[in-house]
Amino acid sequence: MVAKVQVLPSSTPAPKAAVPTRRLRSLDKQLLMQRKTSLLNSTVSNSETPLTADLNGTTFLRPHLLQLAPYTPIEPFEVLSQKLGRAPEEIVKLDANENPYGPPPEVREALGNVRFPHIYPDPESRALRAALSEWAGVPMEHILVGCGADELIDLIMRCVLDPGDAILNCPPTFGMYSFDAAVNDARVISVTRNPDFSLDVDGIVRAVKEHSPKVVFLTSPNNPDGGMMSEEELLRVLDLPVLVVLDEAYVEFSEAPSRAAWVASRPNLVVLRTFSKMAALAGVRVGYGFFPLDMIQYLWSKQPYNVSALAEVAACAALSNKAYLLDVKARLVEERDRLHKLLQGVDFLEPYPTSSNFILCKVTGGRDALALKQALMERGVMVRHYASPGLENCVRISVGKPEQTDLLMAALAGC
What integer pLDDT is reported at residue 211 of this predicted model? Predict the structure, then answer.
């Protein structure tokens, strides 16, 4: 069987580039040098011409960034409210996998009693790392905290990758891996998932041997389908000579255990987690990772105040009420199962199995997924639309409260 491997230049968002990556990078540098040489020559030939006459903002940018396609985020509540002409309370927001129950009440109380907002925060986030150590059962020396797990993804790439190095990605999956690779001038080796969204582990093995990527990013449960990878699959990838970054942003909603403790015995494993999902702190931006000790000592050469005092206080307060977090998890899992059964009864939707707080659906029966998204939005219900390879004509629906599920189903009935 031929591995489904695709090699993408770092700054090219679509698989249409016919020019090799190294040649693209060489051409970028040549163009930049020609621009600078032309500027110097014109200055020499005409001493009255200002030195800055031919400069513009792009003159100073790294060439590969000029080709970078921006990341497309979800629209914020305030913008949606204005666009739809609805109060935020009237919008059923099921497009970003946020936790509709909000954080434990201790979070609001703690934020209202922050003692020293005028003082810089602890650059090592010691209080939060100690709380995370108790929560996860992993020594705090293995733990690094960031401004969301996204910051840690970028930090790993900046510390591991030289320009032109490669990461291995397994699409369809979280888009931040390929985006951050492009920002860091890295190539992307893509091993496409199987039609059921399971990993093509044989393809990963072949791609590592052929292309020698430095990092492979794996997500379990995977976003946007919610599928899990098996322990056997993870162990096979860990046996390869590559750094394995396991993103467990949604693992709390599954029955699988976290692999965070494995970092103590696996020198090529990093495990990432977030407070955005089960702890409902998406707007606060707190993520954390578990790293091998001989790696984490160098990652501490990061920006010193990347986690604000407010973020640390909020995260510690959330962890203080374990009963609340587990209750919210149970409610969302129960509602996920109810929603999945209801979606199975919609004649133009085929929901995929999921172990997360969202459900990916194939839009069928000749219906168009984008048109369905627009129709739902007109009714005040937001879902995520996909059209990329492997996700053609799909929508992803976040799990909400029971009353939000009822509003969604009523809207679907009217579409």
Answer: 98
